Amino acid sequence: MISIEKVTVNMGVGASGERLEQAKKLLENITGQKPLETVTQKRIPKWGVRKNMKIGVKVTLRGKKASDFLNKALDAVGRKISKRSFDKEGNFAFGIKEYIDLPGVKYNPDIGMFGFDVCVTLKKWGYRLKERKRERKKVPRKHRISKEEAISFVKEKLGVEVV
What we know:
Low-confidence stretches: none
Helix content: 10-25%
Oligomer: single chain
């Protein structure tokens, strides 16, 4: 049986400073959880990016919080997701262009306008194999979630139309 393992909400700002603080405040308001700052892995001089520079924020939601937020986010995109949004492992992601598209969220002039990505990780019963401390193993290929299984799960359980 497939279930939702986690929902990751990611907001890339591209620069540190005041804009990053505003994004952090917004993500905390939307999700009700303290966000984590993300840093760059390498240096890109043309973009003015240094290694280990803080350029974004993210929040990982699990359990009831994850399913509640996912329902809000799916309402914001009209309960439609592209087939290309699914990967071969069965996970899917989609973007929301403006945070005011979420139901119940109003525009805050102090924060400005931001968009964000919502990434959903699915799991099946028995995935503990790869996370346990003793005798950790890979999940067998026949037990992994396929793209088709994930699409049917999203259609049935979440009521989403896959285009």
